[in-house]
Amino acid sequence: MADPVWIIDTSSIIEIRRSVPVTDRARLFARLTTLVQEGRLKFPKQVIEELRRAATPDRRDTQLDWAGRVVADACSAGPTLEEVKEVLSRVRDVLDPSKDSGADEADPYVLAIAARLRAEGFDARIVTQETKDSPQKISLNTAAGLLGIPSVPLRGLLRAEGLEHVS
After folding, report:
1. What is the rounded distance in angstroms from the CA atom of residue 105 to the CA atom of residue 99?
2. What's the pLDDT at 166?
3. How far is Cα 7 from Cα 125, in angstroms, rounded to an integer?
4. Taking the alpha carbons of 42, 110, 45, 138 in that order, is the dihedral positive or negative?
5. Residue 166 domain flag
6. How far apart are the first and last CA of the chain?
7. Burial of 114 (0-12, 13-18, 19+ CB in 10 A)
8. Which of 53, 120, 130, 163 supports an S-S bond with 158, CB 3.0-4.6 Å?
């Protein structure tokens, strides 16, 4: 079987800040960049927008910096509006009804990329930290499961790709 293609969500890129020591991040980002260049790590442009909104304005954000450097390659498989609509027709409650900012949430775009790649025969998997469901919104992990798409947290990606010990 071919190597998996990972579609990473904002939450997992942010998780790098929490779970990877500062001294190991540059090396990890270099390895993730290689996955992007190989076409094996992707994210929609909405992830960049979410990272910008989550960034602290008065300090450097290495996660946002990395995503900005790889955006052209990582976002090359962006979904069509029709693909996003198809996903939302099946898991509408992946959108957060309490958000009224007008900004696109990345979750349906992550799902649409993974669904298309799986339909094309790729072993597409979602990487997300989102696992908590509420009565109004299901997590990205739950939505992926409902669509038959494998989902793992950042640790799963790192383990599968031999990146657990990057230092």
Report:
1. 9
2. 61
3. 6
4. negative
5. no
6. 29
7. buried
8. 163
Cα-to-chain-centroid distance, residue 34: 16
Residue 165 inside a domain? The answer is no
- H helices of the chain, where? 10-19, 22-37, 45-54, 62-74, 81-90, 107-119, 140-146, 154-160
Residue 100 CB: number of other CB atoms within 10 A? Answer: 7
- Number of separate domains in the chain: 1
3-state secondary structure of 92: helix
- Give residue 115's domain range: 5-160
Residues 35 and 5: beta-carbon distance below 8 Å? no
The CATH code of the domain that includes 117 is 3.40.50
Asked if pLDDT for residue 167 goes beyond 50, the answer is no
- Yes or no: say if 133 and 139 are a contact pair by the CB < 8 Å rule: yes
In the beta sheet, which residues pair with residue 124?
A: 5
Give per-residue pLDDT as tens, 102-141.
667 999 999 999 999 999 999 999 999 999 999 999 999 9
